[in-house]
Amino acid sequence: MRLTISNEITGQLYGPVDLSDDTDLADLIALLELDCQFDSSQNDIYHQMNILDLKNNANRSVEDIGLKDNDLLLIPNKFNRNNQHFLIPQQGTNIPAYENLSDDQYIEQFRQDLLNNSFLKQQFMSQIPGLQDVLNDRHAFSDRLGPFILSKRKNSYYGNNNNNNGGAGGFNYQQTNPFNISQDEYKRLMENPDLPENKKRITELIDQQVIDEQLRNAYEYTPEVFTTVTMLYINLEINGTPVKAFVDTGAQMTIMSTKLAEETGLTKLIDKRFIGEARGVGVGKIIGRIHQALVKIETQFIPSSFVVLDTQIDLLIGLDMLKRHQACVDLRRNVLKIADIETKFLGEADIPKGFETTDTTNKPSNDWKPDEPSNFKNIPVPQIRGPDTTNPPLTSSAPLNNTNNATPHVRSYPPDAVKQLMDLGFSRDEVIKALNRTGGNPEYAAALLFQ
User: Fold this and answer.
1) Locate the Peptidase A2 domain: which residues (predicted)?
2) pLDDT in tens, 410-451
3) For residues 236 and 336, what is the distance between their CA atoms, to the nearest angstrom?
4) Which residues are catalytic?
């Protein structure tokens, strides 16, 4: 067999050394003492993250103690444990000193870990194309995967630290490993990688590495996805009154506020037999329904019906009006095509400011765990029934089909934004839930509450 020896004391790499399988460990130690400046009385030898028992296994062959062809032996530095300027692992642990490995040694140790851990190798093979082709070739492995592996080696650092005994500032030391987790957890996982709970944890760590890499790529190549999206508004007129209408393709019904109904003189046309409740994330009180009114968009007059709610959003154009007039939202040209005419969507400076907030940045938390995702597709839209002379006022009874019952993150939002949403007829809990689901954007939250 051929063995490679890395001596961190001298900073040199020896080998490959040719040995027969029946060579005694004592003979190997004698060879290392002669050629590698190894002192068995002061230093240890690591193989696959474990210290070789040089005393009890001296007369056993290298094959019997588990050495294989192309294995790497590591002779690490051993610091004085009484030196208070260093925080290092206690002697006797089975974790090699990863922080002292050079880049080449670190890559080789990573390759050895993959070779000797079938489950870990299988997981990485699914994430790294061509891994199997280079795994048995040390130089090819280093050339192809070395930069990727070294990019993950990021948690080992040295910094100034004042000890508690009044000594001079020293070095703060932190070990690293391929998963960038604590050495205790890494040791536990690697000692029994085939345990179901360890398999699950290793899979989660590998998946998290992929997610983190995707997030870094997104920040670098598509940073625009982390900005706040401006909602779609258009200019129109109702009875000569200019209105900035919110276009919401996710809303079932077109909604008008009681305030706008008064301003446009449509209050007298409200059919109050259609009173009820619109249920979604929250509950909105339906004042009634306007069955027919003309809306002027550009030069075209378009008939529309409205559900009237006590809300601060003047007008929300829902899917009923959009489908009725075969509308097309053209985001490339930033226009709405409806009833054979086109009208431009308003710019960010022109949209209503009633629901503006200063905290709309879209950033992950420090541990890179994403917030609870918005799940709009399972939120039912308001259901409106026709008049009924025998039953009390009807409500839409479809409850929110929330597929995630986990408690959302506790966050603070601008009091004005919360108050404005509560003024729409929703409770504080409903408003906070809607803000949580929409990343703190009041406009999105308002649209979600009315669905």
Assistant:
1) 243-321
2) 467 888 788 878 877 788 888 888 888 777 777 778 777 776
3) 12
4) 248
